[in-house]
Amino acid sequence: MKLQLVGMALATAAATAAAGPVNVVCQTTKGAIDIVIQPAWSPRGAERFLQLVDAGHFDRVPFFRCLDGFLCQFGFPQSKAAAKKWPAIADDLRQPALRQFKRGYISFAGGGANTRTDHLFITLGDKVESLGTQPWETPIGYVTPASMQQTVSRFNMSYGDIPPWGKGPDPQKLQGPGAADYLKQNFPALDYIQSCKRR
């Protein structure tokens, strides 16, 4: 049974990869961002992102960790309807040609091998050597250059990194019923994704 499930997952990922680019638009507190998902780059990651989009997971999701020239991370939905637990997915095969993350690349954020769930980041630097070095860091697509310039570049970066490295939100306080109030009271200038949908 287990081998059958693994086979089904691989077949689904292969079908996703063969489908071609998928366009997604996310509305944020600074305007719309156009995203091009490239399933061939990271089949499992692309499939999970599109599942999150279709499930309404990105309704009111904060950009809780934004460091200028590095990355802007998002996750922790504030909508009760979207706060579903997503099981971790397996890492995708790394592609050497995509090892060097470019400005606008989107990737899942993980904490170890096969830990990708529902947290992602947008690369903000033109050449960030530290990104793409881990097995779980494989780009799933990119934010268009126009959206990077017109919208992402305007995201609030003043809070910086999460504690203890910066004065941003404490991830431990971003889950549960008090999370929205915690952010509103302590980080009023934080930017959010309001919704995402396929084009």
UniProtKB/TrEMBL annotation:
InterPro entries: Cyclophilin-like_dom_sf, Cyclophilin-type_PPIase_dom, Cyclophilin_A-like. Residues 26-147 form the PPIase cyclophilin-type domain. Keywords: Signal. The keyword Signal applies. Pfam families: Pro_isomerase. Residues 1-19 form the signal peptide. This is PPIase cyclophilin-type domain-containing protein. The lineage of its organism: Bacteria, Pseudomonadati, Pseudomonadota, Betaproteobacteria, Neisseriales.
